[in-house]
Amino acid sequence: MAAEDTAAGRCLIFSDFAGRFRENQQDSSGSSQEAYPTSPQASPAVKCTQFELRSLPMPSPGVIRKEQTPHIPPTPPPTVPKVSICIPTYNRADILPYAVNSVLAQTYVDFELLICDDASPDHTAEVVAQWDDPRIRYIRHPQNLKRSRNMRAGYEAAVGDYFLKFDDDDALTPEFLAKTVAVLDSQPQVDFVCTDHWVINAHNQRDEAATQANSAKWGKDRLGDGVIADLVTETFEHQSLQVGSTLFRKSCLAAVDFMRFEADGCEDFDLLVRLALAGKVGYFIPERLMEYRFHGGQTSLRQDIHFLSAKLHCLEGYQFDPLHLEQSRQRKMADLKQVLALRLIEKGETQRGRQLLADLKQAGPLSRRAQVGWGLSYLPVALRKLVFQGFRQVRTKDYSERVRNAAG
């Protein structure tokens, strides 16, 4: 999704963005109770006028150190809000309004919304220009910074004590902020609060069966209301929590320096594990207060390889004192190496894929699946791709694939 970084560039910050808007607009009719308007015109009109341009040095390509992080100076609204919400976006002008309008529909209103646009080539800027709400700040990068740096831009610009980041294809239910803020306000020992969530498809429709299957797969359905007893196990072993449905104290994020650039593609998982290892306290609300979307644009061979490589990097860097968690880490690394090797072989990165399988073979016999992958690596790339696609056609589809395939 992201283009390669360049050595220099500028970052445009549109604070309290407005100026090109339509007046006397009305809410669209016919929406279901759980759906939010998909057009910016449904938002209330409040004129705002401030525009700012700031020049910032861009980091050089390669390893990113903390001091190379692009710094986005905050431009707070007249009254500093308690909650900062960040929606990083890239090239999703048509779907972004659903996410933004779900924020504007919150029953809790003391927030700012930062829309961080990673140099989208589509009409995202024109879509954002139609919202006339002083709580919205638009940060647009003229160059693509990659996912993690775009998220970092929102985090750096946020001024609230509480912070939420969720993706541009997801949404919040109207009471998300009211219920999560209430926990942080009343329980100062809690560092962050997470909720369960709905699964929705490309048409904004909630899928009850997929939602139940998702909650069961990740163990959300067995978590009760309250402080999470074993946060390391829940974040690392079960992966029960999700950043997009979590409201954080910004101070706890600062304690672990938020997201790591080297975890790009797997930064949500990595952030939660590092918070748990740092001894932070998490709270779970077993209510579906967020909507997570499955759609066809989320998966590709390139995206799979990027994610698996990032997650393997993260796993290699963790260390656990409990023996059972360390053993789990070793198993997860072996499984990841096998899956990554097969994806690389399918893509045509044959030598890298074979090397991963050779590493696994040194630790013990290869699984039958890995042996098949090794054999396929000797076929021409076009032919091996056909074989891999054939395997996918005959295997059983899980709930996520069903939702994606049914709705595009």
CATH superfamily heading of the largest domain: Spore Coat Polysaccharide Biosynthesis Protein SpsA, Chain A
What does the radius of gyration come to? Answer: 22 Å
The pLDDT mean sits at: 84
By CATH, the topology of the largest domain is Spore Coat Polysaccharide Biosynthesis Protein SpsA, Chain A
How many domains? The number is 2
Uncertain stretches: 1-33, 41-71
Number of helices: 14
Distance between the termini: 19 Å
* Coarse structural class: alpha/beta
Total DSSP E strands: 11
The level-1 CATH class of the largest domain: Alpha Beta
CATH architecture of the largest domain: Alpha-Beta Complex
What labels would you give this structure?
11-stranded mixed beta sheet; 2 domains; 14 helices; globular; 408 residues; Spore Coat Polysaccharide Biosynthesis Protein SpsA, Chain A; 11 strands; 39% helix; alpha/beta
Overview of this structure, please?
The radius of gyration is 22 Å and the shape is globular. Strands 1, 2, 3, 4, 5, 6, 7, 8, 9, 10 and 11 form an 11-stranded mixed β-sheet that branches. The protein is an alpha/beta fold. The model is unreliable at 1-33 and 41-71 (pLDDT under 50). It has helices at residues 96-104, 124-129, 147-157, 176-186, 208-217, 231-238, 250-255, 267-277, 301-317, 323-347, 350-363, 368-376, 381-394, 399-407; strands spanning 11-14, 52-54, 83-89, 111-117, 136-140, 162-165, 171-172, 192-200, 226-227, 246-249, 282-293.
